[in-house]
Amino acid sequence: MPGSHPNPDRPAGPVLVTGASGTIGRRLVPALVAAGHQVRAMTRSDAAAQTAAAAGADPVCGDVTDPASLSAAVRGCQVVIHAAGRMGASPALEPFWPVNVTGTRNVLWPRQPTRRCAGSFTSARR
């Protein structure tokens, strides 16, 4: 719009939401779209991608445990909201480690040294 100034609080590029079909992501994606953000929703299934598209987001197939797919999903994004995580009740750590630890590490410490990274952590409790 001529004469308008960009909002410094709003990212210039897309916002990537990992875990877009999860407990938090499936509520966060439509809220971000409604607030006027361009949203890229990282999903792992066709059904989740369709849901994200119906909410007004741009679905992108990827997995936080796969650095190559994460790199493709984050390309061009100014903000990443990491909402992916495995939930459940188990005394063992092994089922949770790949997504909750390795996936978070992949989001926070990308292989592209020029990318800026700021953390946004989410948690859900059932």
Compact summary:
31% of the residues lie in helices and 13% in strands.
Give a topology summary.
Elements: E1 15-18, H1 25-34, E2 39-43, H2 46-54, E3 58-61, H3 67-74, E4 79-82, H4 97-108
Parallel strand pairs: 1-2, 1-4, 2-3
Structure notes:
This protein is α/β, with parallel strands linked by helices and 126 residues long. Helix content is 31%, strand content 13%. The chain contains four helices and four strands. It has helices at 25-34, 46-54, 67-74, 97-108, and strands spanning 15-18, 39-43, 58-61, 79-82. It is globular, with a radius of gyration of 15 Å.
Give keywords:
4 strands; 4 helices; Rossmann fold; disordered N terminus; 126 residues; four-stranded parallel β-sheet; alpha/beta
Q: Helical residue percent?
A: 25-40%
Q: Report the total helices.
A: 4
User: Would you list the SSEs in sequence order as H and E?
Assistant: EHEHEHEH
- Structural class of the secondary elements? alpha/beta
- Describe the global form: globular
CATH fold annotation = Rossmann fold
Task: Write out the strand line-up for the largest beta sheet, numbering strands in chain order.
Answer: 3-2-1-4
